[in-house]
């Protein structure tokens, strides 16, 4: 019998996906992710064509790393609008529960944009969260509050000087436009203050009276007027103002028509809920060539009317300064400047009274034409939709719908129907946001709460595209500037010192 040769290959032992099984053989129950590096096509040209492409844009301010892939995300509303062409409106709306890092995210954007040459304007800092940052950038800090600083709502700011420069250069039409814008801004602010005082907007007739009285005041007053000067014009009743009031030549009728308006202005001039914050000359005029923050942190949270009125005054002054800068740049008298405007705690202003949504809408709707990027910050959609009137709620929801990008931190599950009505979110994205708002766990080793699971984590949404989940990572320098717990670094020893001084053991 002929014997056949066995040609079968010997069996080769191979480890499994997690290594050699068995004791002492190196089996791993956790497979670590491979290290990743990013390089330019020049540095890693030998790897072309790339096997896997980066899924996040690299245009703008570096915000953090993608939670799942580790890729860096560069993102800010101005860069994505101006350079990347990813959004049609240079604005961002930031939503998230308190303490999860909304202000930190916006500070990172402001820091990076300042490096690109964009001026950060923080028009109302209630914490304060941005004062140290603006000081580090060499900017201007304007402090407002009872007895700490005043902002004159009738101050045209730099509009008068800009109009003179434009006339001297032969731009008569542009000079008239600058003055008309300043007039409209002051009229809007006086109406807004009256709205806050009453809880309802002034009537159409009162709006007309205010407009005519401001024009009379500008024609007759030398220097910068204050609210007391406007009140005197209405009380004196010049012919132009009486014609706007339709008093039919009857003094008693004129006094009856203007009585409520006069009472509201008296409350603004002589104290009342809003004090004298807006009735005195401006203590620290805003400049257009430096980063600026209005520090309103001294106003207590319980004083919501004053907070809302101050925020509106800051926003009005800020956008007025932007208009002046644009007019001078259009005429070639100054270089073009772009601004990154931060509107924090938006919900406080919206709740101040009927008509406040219209005021905010007028200030923020034309940001693309004004050459500014805007970041609006609030806690939840419920804050925007908790207004008393349906038309105000619809307009407030429009702030989110019109934003070029919506950035969300941790949010409760009850917010999802309202949020998805404005911006489409998948079920997985909603679950991610709900998980980020969970309370922190207790660390028994340290004897304190661990860091909240959603701190520093955000989902960037642009239209109907899938959201980009990121983890914002700060540098050591930023951690020092962004520290909001400075008052707690030193342990109080007053009790111990008092005990030692009294000789008690």
Automatic annotation (TrEMBL):
Lineage top rank: taxon: Bacteria
Organism of this sequence: Georgenia soli
Residues forming coiled coils: none
Name under which the protein is recorded: ATP/GTP-binding protein
Signal peptide interval: none
Taxonomic lineage from the root: Bacteria, Bacillati, Actinomycetota, Actinomycetes, Micrococcales
Entries under InterPro entries matching the protein: P-loop_NTPase, T4SS_component
């Amino acid at each position: 019998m002929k014997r056949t040769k066995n040609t079968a290959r010997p069996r080769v032992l191979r480890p499994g996906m997690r290594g050699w099984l068995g004791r002492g053989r190196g089996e791993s129950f956790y497979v670590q992710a491979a290290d990743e590096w990013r390089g330019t096509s020049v540095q890693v040209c030998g790897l072309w064509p790339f096997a896997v492409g980066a899924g996040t844009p690299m245009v703008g301010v570096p915000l953090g790393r993608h939670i799942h892939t580790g890729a860096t995300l560069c993102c800010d509303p101005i860069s994505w609008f101006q350079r990347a062409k990813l959004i049609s409106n240079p604005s961002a709306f930031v939503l998230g529960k308190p303490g999860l890092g909304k202000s930190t995210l916006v500070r990172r954007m402001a820091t990076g944009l300042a490096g690109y040459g964009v001026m950060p304007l923080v028009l109302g800092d209630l914490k304060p969260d941005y004062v140290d940052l603006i000081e580090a950038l060499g900017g201007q800090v304007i402090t407002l509050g009872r007895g700490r600083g005043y902002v004159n709502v009738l101050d045209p700011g730099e509009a008068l000087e800009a109009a003179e420069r434009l006339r001297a250069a032969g731009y008569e039409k542009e000079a008239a436009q600058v003055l008309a814008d300043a007039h409209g801004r002051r009229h809007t602010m006086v109406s807004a203050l009256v709205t806050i005082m009453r809880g309802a907007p002034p009537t159409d007739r009162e709006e007309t009276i205010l407009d005519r009285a401001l024009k009379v005041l500008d024609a007759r007053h030398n220097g910068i007027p204050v609210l007391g000067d406007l009140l005197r014009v209405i009380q004196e009743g010049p012919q132009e103002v009486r014609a706007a009031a339709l008093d039919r030549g009857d003094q008693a009728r004129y006094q009856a028509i203007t009585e409520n308006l006069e009472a509201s202005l008296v409350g603004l001039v002589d104290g009342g809920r809003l004090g004298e914050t807006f009735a005195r000359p401006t203590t620290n005029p805003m400049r257009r060539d430096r980063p600026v923050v209005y520090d309103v942190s001294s106003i207590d949270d319980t004083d919501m009317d004053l907070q809302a009125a101050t925020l509106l005054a800051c926003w009005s002054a800020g956008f007025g300064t932007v208009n002046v800068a644009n007019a001078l740049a259009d005429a070639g008298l100054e270089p073009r400047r772009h601004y990154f405007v931060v509107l924090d705690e938006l919900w406080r202003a919206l709740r101040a009274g009927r008509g406040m949504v219209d005021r905010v809408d007028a200030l923020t709707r034309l940001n693309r034409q004004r050459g500014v990027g805007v970041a609006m910050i609030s806690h939840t959609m419920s804050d925007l939709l908790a207004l008393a009137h349906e038309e105000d709620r619809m307009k407030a929801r429009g702030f989110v719908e019109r934003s070029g990008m919506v950035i969300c931190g941790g949010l409760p599950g009850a917010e999802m129907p309202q949020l998805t009505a404005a911006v489409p979110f998948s079920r997985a994205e909603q679950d991610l946001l709900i998980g980020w708002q969970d309370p922190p766990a207790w660390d028994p080793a340290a004897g304190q709460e661990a860091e909240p699971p959603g701190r520093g984590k955000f989902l960037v949404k642009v239209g109907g595209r899938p959201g980009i989940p990121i983890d914002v990572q700060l540098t050591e320098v930023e951690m020092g500037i962004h520290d909001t717990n400075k008052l707690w670094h030193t342990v109080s020893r007053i009790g111990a010192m008092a005990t030692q001084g009294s000789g008690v053991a």
